[in-house]
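In the design runs reported in the main text, the only information available to the sequence generator was the tokenized backbone. The following block is the verbatim input for one such run; it is reproduced so that readers can re-run the procedure and compare outputs position by position.
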């Protein structure tokens, strides 16, 4: 018998009508499966799959596919991502790395002209910035290895949304307006998202028959339809000869059909640390998120944070983040190209050494440490010079899903910048990533461009266990601030004792080893800010809110609480299969 989402679900969702608007955080508690995303339609897609008998992996792919339609400027099949999965039957955590890769033609000089780095924004809006997309291969691996359904079933909800259309919200219109210049470069992008060269107004209906076509071809032809068929040819043509509007110009890329056909996702063991009775599992390299969050937690673990004033605890959080970022920026990159000192970075002994550097006042910028001394193998000679942190755009999405059997997915995926490269693939309606701008444009550095290499990421989908069982999940978009959002939410939840909705709502402070800490609008001048200024902290006010996190909390009574953002990016939606207390 077919179950209806309306009969079975508690759905609490809100629309963020402007980037700075405030609204109630969506929270839902109950039994059965649970889902939290930034989109009501995506959450409903996941819930429908759960109600139809699918598991958390099936539902996560369904939600992700729908987000590719409704949140196309953040994610989609033209990009890549990282998925962390808890498998209840096996009582273990695994990860799927489907980060984009550089084409075989890529060299360390890819973003240099006359020996100097090209303009960042020019590089973004070009075919040269497009990495080989990994999302569809990642979904395929997830479904084949750990799911119960096939593409035909999990893509059906997204196809329906793409065919019927969705209504432009104020935030969607705002984001389109921010990207008008980039979108005006490309004829298919302008045709889909602009009217007479301007952003669609709130209330307009967008249909995307091209994306519906792409999903139908994948549903019928499987993963090969994307990587070897007409979609692959359309991607290669769009990268190598961008579909420019009349009178426009952009750098071309050099991608081949072989680049797509040879793309592989990686099943990797998660990074693991312990923190105050929890096991924290995150992504390994090439995402720096798992290692940096874990190192900062290891540093913080040596302090009795609950026994001190909040301002001092937050000072220590910021300084731990600063130290972890110094090592992250110096050492971490694709593990298939460099031998990064991850074991040393995750060492509790190394954390103690780094902890000893924290003083009573903010340190400004700090140097990377020497984790090699804490490696099992100390023969690695690399000691990269200090470099300025490469700019990262803050535009990604995160979702999290659980099912009645206890499987859990924490999934972050992206096309990098808002709107990625700006190139919509002609005939197929999806935007291509600009992920290759996540490389450091010049070296020497572990994260310089190379053929086939995956650029370093900050994505940090996280699953925490306690007593061997899921305790909570957390993840967020936000470029390098992903790491600090995840870290601060864990700190708020475990150390400051906040309920998860309050942990997400709290003002975000992002310290990435910079001269000043990034803060959200409205924080400067607050009592909390003044208290931290006594510790020497200085502020760099962001123009928009930081992150858009989603979380699940697994309660002692067997219920699960889904929590989404209510006041930051997009639409927050938290749903459970059966309403609880």
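Verbatim output:
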């Amino acid at each position: 018998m077919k179950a209806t989402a309306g009969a079975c679900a508690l759905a609490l969702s809100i629309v963020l009508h402007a980037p700075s608007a405030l609204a109630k955080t969506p929270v839902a508690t109950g039994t059965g499966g649970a889902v939290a995303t930034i989109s009501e339609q995506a959450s409903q897609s996941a819930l429908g799959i759960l109600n139809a008998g699918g598991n958390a992996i099936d539902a996560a792919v369904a939600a992700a596919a729908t987000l590719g339609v409704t949140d196309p400027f953040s994610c989609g099949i033209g990009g890549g991502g990282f998925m962390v999965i808890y498998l209840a039957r096996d009582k273990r955590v695994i990860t799927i790395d489907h980060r984009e890769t550089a084409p075989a033609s890529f060299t360390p000089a890819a973003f240099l002209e006359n020996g100097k780095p090209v303009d960042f924004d020019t590089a973004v809006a070009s075919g040269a910035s497009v990495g080989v997309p990994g999302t569809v291969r990642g979904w395929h691996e997830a479904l084949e290895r750990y799911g119960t359904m096939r593409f035909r079933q999990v893509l059906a909800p997204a196809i329906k949304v793409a065919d019927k259309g969705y209504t432009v919200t104020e935030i969607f219109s705002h984001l389109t307006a921010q990207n008008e210049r980039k979108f005006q470069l490309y004829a298919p992008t302008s045709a889909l998202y602009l009217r007479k060269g301007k952003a669609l107004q709130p209330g307009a209906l967008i249909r995307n028959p091209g994306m519906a076509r792409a999903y139908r071809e994948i549903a019928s032809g499987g993963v090969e339809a994307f990587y070897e068929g007409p979609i692959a040819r359309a991607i290669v043509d769009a990268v190598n000869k961008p579909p420019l509007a009349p009178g426009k110009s952009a750098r071309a890329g050099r991608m081949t059909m072989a680049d797509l056909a040879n793309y592989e996702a990686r099943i990797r063991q998660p990074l693991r640390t312990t923190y105050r009775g929890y096991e924290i599992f995150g992504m390994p390299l090439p995402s720096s998120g798992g290692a940096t969050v874990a190192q900062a937690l290891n540093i913080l673990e040596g302090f009795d944070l609950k026994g001190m004033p909040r301002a001092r605890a937050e000072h220590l959080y910021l300084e731990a983040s600063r130290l972890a970022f110094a090592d992250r920026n110096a050492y971490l990159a694709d593990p298939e190209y460099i031998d990064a000192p991850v074991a040393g970075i995750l060492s509790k002994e190394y954390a103690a050494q780094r902890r000893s550097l924290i003083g009573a006042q903010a340190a400004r910028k700090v140097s990377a440490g020497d984790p090699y001394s804490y490696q099992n193998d100390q023969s690695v000679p690399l000691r990269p010079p200090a470099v300025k942190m490469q700019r990262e755009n803050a535009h990604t999405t995160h979702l999290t899903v659980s099912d009645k059997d206890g499987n859990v997915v924490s999934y972050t995926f992206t096309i990098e910048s808002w709107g990625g490269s700006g190139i919509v693939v002609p005939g197929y309606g999806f935007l291509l990533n600009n992920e290759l701008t996540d490389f450091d444009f010049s070296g020497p550095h572990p994260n310089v461009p190379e053929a086939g290499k995956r650029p370093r990421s900050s994505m940090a989908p996280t699953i925490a266990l306690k007593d061997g069982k899921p305790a909570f999940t957390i993840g967020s978009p936000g470029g390098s601030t992903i790491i600090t959002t995840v870290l601060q939410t864990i700190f708020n939840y475990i150390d400051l004792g906040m309920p998860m909705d309050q942990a997400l709502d709290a003002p975000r402070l992002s310290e990435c080893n910079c001269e000043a800490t990034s803060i959200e609008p409205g924080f400067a001048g607050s009592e909390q800010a003044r208290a931290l200024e006594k510790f020497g902290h200085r502020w760099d006010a962001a123009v928009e809110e930081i992150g858009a996190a989603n979380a699940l909390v697994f309660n002692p009574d067997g219920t699960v609480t889904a929590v989404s953002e209510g006041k930051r990016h997009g639409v927050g939606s938290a749903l459970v299969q059966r309403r609880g207390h």
